[in-house]
Amino acid sequence: MTSELDKVDILVLKAIAPDAMKALADRFTLHRLDLAADRDAFLNEVGPRIRGMAAGGQVPTDGAMFEKLPNLEVIANFGVGYDAIDAVEARRRGIIVTNTPDVLTDEVADLAVGLLLATIRQIPQTDRYLRAGHWPNKGSYPLTATLRGRTIGILGLGRIGRAIATRLEGFGVAIAYHGRRPQPDVAYAYHPTLLAMAQAVDVLMVVAPGTAETRNVVDAKVLAALGPDGVVINVARGSLIDEVALIEALASGTIHSAGLDVFAEEPHVPEALAALDHVVLLPHVGSASVHTRRVMGALVVENLESWFAGNGPLTPVPETPWVAGR
Ligand code: 8YV
After folding, report:
1. Residues 55 and 195 in one domain
2. Whose CA is nearest to atom 5 of ligand 1?
3. In a domain, 322, yes or no
4. pLDDT grade, residue 322 (50/70/90)?
5. Which residues are part of the catalytic machinery?
6. What is the distance in A from the centroid of ligand 1 to the CA of 148?
7. Domain count, the chain
8. Which residue range(s) make up the domain with 63?
9. Is there a single domain that holds both residue 126 and residue 153?
10. Ligand 1 pocket test: which of 287, 295, 317 has the largest number of ligand atoms within 8 Å of its C-beta?
11. Taking the model in full, what pTM does it have?
12. 3-state secondary structure 283-324
C-alpha cells in the first residue's frame, strides 16, 4: 500500500472481524477506542488526527463524538444497520457513512428462518429436555405448535426481508408484508398498516431498520392483533418492539411465543424475558458466521481504502453526502 494511506489515522470503535483488523492495521494507523482506559482523554488526544472511522457494535456515533473528531471524513460501519450512527448529523458535517449491505443478506435470512422453526417447534427446549435426561423418564417431549397452515407477515420487505420470503416460499406458507409502500414486483399480500397485517397473519417477522419512525411500532395493539397463536420473530433491532408489552403478551398468553435475536438494551436481556421458557433468545448472531463476518470486514476495509485513494465510498448509505460520479 502507498505511504499516503499509512499516514491516515483511523479510529476503531470496537474490534471487527480478525482479517479486517489485520488489513486495517497493515494499511492505516489505528487508534482503538475500545482499548482506551479513559475514552474522553483518548479522544481529546487523538481526535484531531482522525480522518476515518471503523464503526460498529452499536457504539453511539453522534454529534458529541463528531465534535471531538473535527477532521473526520468517513465512517465505515461494520453492519448493514447503522442506527447507532447519526447519519443526518454526519451529512450536515459533510462526513461520509458507509455500511455493509448485500454481503450478509443470505446469512441473516438463514438465521431468521432457523429462528422461526426453532421457536415454533421448540428446538432449543427439546434439546434441553433430552440433555436433562427427561426422555427415558418422562417419555416423549410434549407436542408443539406448527408452521403448517400459517401466514407469515414480514415487517420490512427490503433485501433481507425478500431473502426470508424467498426461503419461506419453499415452506409452503402464505406470505404478506408491510412497509412504506407496496412493491410492484412481488406477489405477496401488501398491508398498508402494521395493525392490519397483524390481524391477517399469525407470524410477525420483524426485519425493518431501526429508525425514529420504527421505534416501538410493534406495540400492545399489534401483539393483541396477532392473537393467541401469534409468533414474533425479530432479527432487526430491539427498538422496533415495545419490550415491556412483548413480555406482558408472552406471559399472559396474548401471543404464543417469540424468537428474538435482538433486544432493546443489548447486551442486557430483561430477566422477565429470560425466565420465559417458550421464547428462544439469541445473542444478536444474525450475521455471525466466520464467512459472513469476514466479507463484512473486507467491505469495511475496502470502503476506507477506496475513500482515501480518492475513489469515493463503495457502499454509501442513502443519507450520505455523496453523489456518485462527481
Ligand atoms: C451487526 C447487524 O452489525 O448488520 C447489522 O445490522 O446487526 C450485525 O451484523 C454485528 O453485530 C456487528 O456489530
Report:
1. no
2. 79
3. no
4. confident
5. 237, 266, 284
6. 31
7. 2
8. 4-101+290-308
9. yes
10. 287
11. 0.96
12. CCCCCCCHHHHHHHHHHHHHHHHHHHCCCCCCCECCCCCCCC
